[in-house]
Design a protein that fits this description.
single chain; 254 residues; six-stranded antiparallel β-sheet; two-stranded antiparallel ribbon; 47% helix; 20% strand
């Protein structure tokens, strides 16, 4: 049986201790409460502080929970609320478009697929929840990069790989794509990531009008596009879905 890592157990206990108190705790109080030597407690606190999970009051030297924990907690809630709010609307989008529907969020330097609705036919398909997609070439990634400053920075700082001859890899070309995405309110990928595959996506906003994800449809080029461009009815359906999910998240009308 695998053994637990003692230092992680102690760090978790320390975070719970700080979360349960109504005031900041000093080093001696933390060490005493957890039965640790002061040197051990101090080392763990300093590590947690360096990662943003714990903050130290400069005047008193006492410790409290840090902002990074709040950010992680909000991220967890946002992602799960996003998926819950998107369930019905993405099912409707898959039925009306006849294509696969994906909801993606920014994760590290890519797009994390956190919801996937199969194309409504009898073809064999693989669930892609948990898969990662690139920011610079996919419709979901372009939308996130266009509306989310953090995603934009991640995309720009990442080496942009050419997946097909159509992939835009230059910084200037990428910025032009993002300007176009913002101007239109949606992004597309026509054989820029996979040969023969096209997609269109639109941003999802929350009650603060902040971009929290993107929703899009993906399918064969001959179905998604007409005369070399994404079919207008698909664009309208995707944007309607994004607006509906955004409204359910409290974004209001826009």
């Amino acid at each position: 049986m695998a053994r637990n890592i003692q230092s992680l157990e102690r760090a978790a206990a320390m975070l719970r201790l700080l979360a349960g108190g109504e005031r900041r705790l000093g080093l001696s109080e933390v060490a005493s409460s957890l039965g640790l030597a002061k040197g051990t407690a101090h080392g763990i606190l300093r590590t947690l502080q360096a990662e943003g999970f714990v903050e130290q009051d400069p005047a008193s030297g006492r410790y409290q929970l840090g902002a990074e924990l709040l950010r992680l907690g909000n991220s967890y809630l946002d992602v799960h609320e996003l998926r819950a709010r998107a369930l019905v609307w993405t099912d409707d989008l898959a039925r009306s478009s006849g294509e696969s529907v994906y909801v993606g969020v920014l994760h590290q330097q890519g797009v994390l697929i956190m919801h996937h609705v199969f194309r409504p036919d009898d073809s064999r398909q693989v669930l892609e929840v948990g898969a990662m997609q690139p920011l610079h070439s996919t419709a979901l990634g372009k939308v996130l990069s266009a509306y989310d400053p953090v995603a934009h920075t991640e995309a720009v700082d990442t080496v942009q790989e050419a997946f097909t001859p159509r992939t835009v890899t230059s910084s200037e070309g990428f910025e032009e794509l993002l300007d176009l995405t913002r101007a239109r309110g949606w992004g597309s990928d026509v054989e820029e990531t996979w040969e023969g595959v096209a997609s269109v996506a639109a941003p999802i906003h929350d009650r603060r009008r902040m971009p929290v994800g993107a929703v899009g449809v993906t399918g064969a080029v001959e179905r998604v596009c007409k005369d070399g461009a994404v079919r207008p009815e698909l664009v309208a359906a995707v944007r309607d879905c994004a607006r509906a999910v955004s409204r359910d998240l409290g974004a209001g009308r826009f």
